[in-house]
Write a structure and sequence with these properties.
402 residues; alpha/beta; Aspartate Aminotransferase, domain 1; Aspartate Aminotransferase, domain 2; four-stranded antiparallel sheet; binds pyridoxal-5'-phosphate
Length: 402
């Protein structure tokens, strides 16, 4: 087993060697600009078309419905700002949710400064949006619902089919940031009534700096104002010379994800379950964050009572994981997702996100269980509160759904 162990696959994933091998010729012999009208250009254009097919196939989209971008952040910007601007004469209202990725939330805040109205739906203790609240939030000026497919911190999967049905019934466009879900669970844009979908290659063992936005071309055909203007690439929706090696790698990553999903999902799920079972068997005062069942296969987010997440991460110097806090200037802010779920602040600060993926092993899981147990026990030994905790007490909502 190689150290450090990488359990942070929600942040990024290692590029699959088969993806690297597919990309390499496109830096050298096949370096053409896919817009050029000669042999070098045609070769690049053919490779881009094949990739567009592979990316589309993974989510049930046609090749012409895939717009390549620099990643999910750009896709979110293009979807939300692009719809808001193009359909401005039809409405001014957008619905999203409090647990979204910052790329979505900050686009919405930007639009609020430009005169749009935004409804931030709350989430329940599991991180799930409430469909009745969604229905009630829609008015006749609502342009877009933007709700993520699966949460990047707690892994909670949203009821996409129901959201898509509601959007369809009310004639509202439905955008989903599916960055964490694509390749980790089956997603079909038509079956879920999704009109716009953001994704990125580096979360599914592809390269960084390349992503896509799916834009529905069928009932309804969605149009967008571009955020990047120029030579009219990607149907005028996203100008700029295409990142051919990146696109080829993204295509390969999607092809591998689709072909391997039937084997990979149970593999990653069983590793995650082994980690969860191991930790809960070894330690008390743990709380599972996120939905107990409607959750990404590789996600485990746990609040360790009486422990500072940052101290735990520091102690786990040979294990790569993320905490439930973000460092803003000087203070530690609890994650906006855990806050939106109503988790107590001390528990949010004691939360750790484990993200398992394709290349993790049982041996690594067992090692991490041992290391976490060691560190949590050591830190609790230093905590005066842990020694004085009420007998039989459990953190609020602890072991919910377990
Ligand atoms: C990682 C992530 C993003 C950002 O993707 P980039 O390609 O790095 O811009 C957006 N949304 C979610 C849900 C993510 O997990």
């Amino acid at each position: 087993m190689k150290l450090p162990v990488y359990f942070d696959n929600h942040a990024t994933t290692p590029v699959d060697q088969r993806v690297v091998d597919t990309m390499l010729p496109f830096f050298t012999e096949q370096f053409g600009n896919s817009a050029s009208k000669h042999a070098f250009g045609w070769e690049a254009e053919a490779a881009v078309h094949q990739a567009r097919k592979n990316v589309g196939s993974l989510i049930g989209a046609a090749p012409k419905e895939i717009i390549f971008t620099s990643g999910a952040t750009e896709s979110d910007n293009l979807a939300i700002k692009g719809v808001a601007e193009l359909y401005r004469d039809r409405g001014d209202h957008i619905i999203t949710c409090a647990a979204e990725h910052k790329a979505v939330l900050d686009c919405c805040k930007f639009l609020e400064r430009h005169g749009y109205r935004v409804t931030y739906l709350p989430v329940d203790a599991y991180g799930t949006v409430n469909l009745d609240k969604l229905r009630a939030a829609i008015d006749d000026k609502t342009l877009l619902i933007s709700i993520m497919a699966a949460n990047n911190e707690v892994g909670t999967v949203q009821p996409l089919t129901e959201i898509g049905r509601i959007a369809g019934e009310r004639g509202v466009l439905f955008h989903t940031d599916a960055t964490q879900a694509v390749g980790k669970m089956p997603i079909d844009v038509a079956a879920c009534g999704i009109h716009l979908l953001s994704m990125t290659a580096h979360k599914l063992h592809g390269p960084k700096g390349i992503g896509a936005l799916y834009v529905s071309a069928r009932k309804p055909r969605v149009r967008l104002s571009p955020t990047i203007h120029g030579g009219g690439h990607e149907g005028g929706m996203r100008s700029g010379t295409l990142n051919v090696p990146g696109i080829v790698g993204f295509g390969k990553a999607c092809e591998l994800a689709r072909a391997g999903m039937a084997a990979e999902l149970p593999h990653v799920t069983s590793l995650r379950d082994r980690l969860e079972t191991g930790l809960f068997a070894q330690l008390d005062e743990l709380h599972l964050n996120g939905h107990p069942t409607e959750r990404l296969c590789g996600n485990l987010n746990v609040a360790f009572g009486y422990v500072e997440g940052e101290s735990l991460i520091m102690g786990l110097n040979d294990v790569a994981v993320s905490s439930g806090s973000t460092c803003t200037s000087a203070a530690l802010e609890p994650s906006h997702v855990l806050k939106a779920m109503g988790l107590r602040e001390d528990l949010a600060h004691g939360s750790i996100r484990f993200g398992l993926g394709r290349f993790n092993t049982e041996e690594e899981v067992d090692y991490v269980v041992r290391r976490v147990e060691e560190e949590v026990t050591r830190l609790r030994g230093l905590s005066p509160l842990y020694g004085k905790r009420p007998a039989g007490a459990r953190p609020a909502a602890a072991t919910a759904g377990k």
